[in-house]
Amino acid sequence: MRALETAEENIRRLLNNPDIIIPNHECCTTDKSSHTECDLCGTEYCSQECLQRAMAEYHQVLCMRTKSRDGSHPIEIINETWKNFYYPPESGSIMIFAKIFALINQAADKSKILHKFSQFCQFTSNEDEEITHKLLGDNFRHHIDVLREMFVSAFGIPECQHWMTPEGFSSLIALVGTNGQGVGSSALAEWAKRAGDLDLPRAEKEQLEEFIDNLYSNLDDESGGFLNCEGSALYELQSKINHSCDPNAEVCFLNGNSRITVRALKEIHQGDEITISYLSMCDVDRSRHSRQKELRANYLFQCQCTKCLTQAEDPDVTSDEEFSSGDDDN
Ligand SMILES: C[S@@+](CC[C@H](N)C(=O)[O-])C[C@H]1O[C@@H](n2cnc3c(N)ncnc32)[C@H](O)[C@@H]1O
């Protein structure tokens, strides 16, 4: 998910203005001289190393083997269908399923990689709470079935039969839904961070900061928050970390790429459980009732963190500012 465009190309595209020039080009991390592509299908990679790794792990299965895009390849059909279901499509998030099937299909030792996936939580519902993951609810059921049939025809391999039934495919969706981590990389954000860190004379620094502020405010008007190369990723270790509404650590992307970091928010002693928040910074400050509602809908659990247990006697009130989903207050 490394951005392939330069920061300048990024801003020109997002503002639909081909004349914008950004200063301090040395802060842009995109190195086009290292870019390469798959000879057969033309998929672009940030480096030869990245292409070789993809080839070794999954690209031989995903490769369309032609550079012409006429919409008939199963991968194109899956992507197009996804875009029709969602806007903005963030089509990367459907490609994680294609990558999972391709990884297994291409692996020499299929049982080893299947074992890895079996280590992630993959419940579709929490029977004690009588709740089902919101992606699997009535509104989404038809979409899931359409996608399942497409995946069956594109990747129907014997080793993955357990995910090809309606229940099995739902459990795969729940696996990504409850363990997946959103990743966004943006050439502009990387440039802005590095440019902001430059050691410059005061007047020059203020001018640069003003330029960056203006860029972001224009971007907000033009494209909203949709700036990044976005997708979902599964991190084996990070997905083992439980949620707390008063976490002692947080997840961050220090380099603006897909390398994840878990950073302490307070002192953590030997033997303490490391916890992160599955809720956004803003949502984690809401009432216990609102937090639990969101965690039940998205992650299928009744939060047992220390903060929730301490607030167990609080009345079931919803925070003034409700979650953006606008769900019923159940
Ligand atoms: C991404 S996994 C976290 C790792 C998981 N505990 C494991 O053993 O693999 C998320 C699941 O962990 C459990 N979980 C995480 N935080 C929790 C909390 N605060 N209270 C209760 N269950 C929690 C829930 O079952 C949730 O669906």
UniProtKB/TrEMBL annotation:
Q: Which Gene3D superfamilies match?
A: SET domain (2.170.270.10)
Transmembrane stretches, start-end:
none
Give the UniProt record's GO annotations in the biological process aspect: methylation; negative regulation of gene expression, epigenetic
Q: Which InterPro entries match?
A: SET_dom, SET_dom_sf
Molecular-function annotations in GO: histone H4K20 methyltransferase activity
Q: Which PANTHER family match?
A: HISTONE-LYSINE N-TRIMETHYLTRANSFERASE SMYD5 (PTHR46402:SF2), SET AND MYND DOMAIN-CONTAINING PROTEIN 5 (PTHR46402)
Protein name from the UniProt record: SET domain-containing protein
